[in-house]
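hiii, so i know i said id send this last week but things got crazy w the move. better late than never?? heres the sequnce for the chain we talked about at the cafe, plus the structure i predicted for it. fair warning i was half asleep when i ran it
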Amino acid sequence: MLKEGLTFWNPWWTEKDYKIKDIKERQSNIDIQPLFDRKEVLALTGVRRSGKTSLMHLIVKDLLQKVEPKQIMYVNLEDPTFERATLEEIYRGFEELMLPDDGQYLFLDEIQNKEEWEKWVKKMYDSRKKVKITITGSNSSLLKSEFSTYLAGRNLTHEVFPLSFPEHLAFNGVTVKNEAELLISRSVINHHLESYMKFGGYPEVVLEDDEKMKFTLLKEYFSAILSRDVLARYDVKERAKLEKLAVYLLTNSSGEISAKSLSKIVDLNIKTVQEYLEHLESVYLFFFVNHFSYSLKAQFTYPRKVYCVDTGMKNAVGFSFSKDDGHLMENLVYLKLRKMGDVYYWKDRDDDIDFVLKQGKTISQLIQSCYDVKDEKTKKREIKSLLKAMEHFKMKDGTIITWDREGLEQIDDKNIHYKTLWKWLLE
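okay and structure toks below
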């Protein structure tokens, strides 16, 4: 059975001139190539269904043009065929079937399903064999903890997320090479931005034409993340309440939360709520943002803000009767900012701003996300809070990201930059 499973997942062993089906290229393909070319173990981490397996297959597709097929082994470790087999037994099966030459490429998908996987990977890495190992995992805490113990200095990690907005456009055949083309394509881009905000960036969802099926897929992804990545790994006694907590967080994404308030909502003690929040964060379903303070202790006295990994999942699973464009837009802004540095929010007794971006030891940007600033009262409130934060952080520039306003407004010696969401996401 083991060898049959290996043959099934590696059709290039038996089919002459085998070609992997076309897979859409994305920015991650370019980003990971320099990492793959090195000796270190390459770990692709990220939320389930975000495209980690597709990236593996793109690497394999490229390798098949350069090396013998028998040197490449791919294994999906969620396949029940491999459930009772150790990684050593799987590798021995590969060797017996293929007699691979020196210079082997091992692709181990969803490796967290194997106990003590890190010990075996370390052993292979330290062996005299010329072996390049690429792994995927859907749990950040798993990879961080085991890597820090066994694979320190032996691994390079790349996080994979649902498509960014530029990738979303590329998947839909929209390309812009310069600012002139950008302006000409503005109406088309805004149309796709509305779709991106509603259905999110999961690759298969973006490629699906039927809107009902898009939401069906997103609901299935949500269920799979809870069952396979949370419940299967952690000792969760209150399963129904964990799901209730996750749905509540999706519904209130971009809002402030605290373990104390959540404990009353889902009827769990505070310690259990904190554990469940850690579980949901570890599988990349949610991200929690702290209030910024120069005192670490003070940071933890404020509530945190919560953002979800994909706005489509919020719309498909969250509980809502009306459009929620403001919170959806804020969530999209966060998802881009988290790739740029450390993200916080800031508030004092009277005012608050959505995002403080820290890069290294420097506060580099102060950002408000506001869907519509046409209302004068709303505009004054946003500006007042931003100016207060600029004064607090001693910065001359602040940004308000809106749906359709751009320009510069100078107030005393401060510069308020208005940027449209679509253009900012494409910067």
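btw The domain at 2-159 is CATH 3.40.50.300 (Rossmann fold). thought thatd interest u
miss u guys!!
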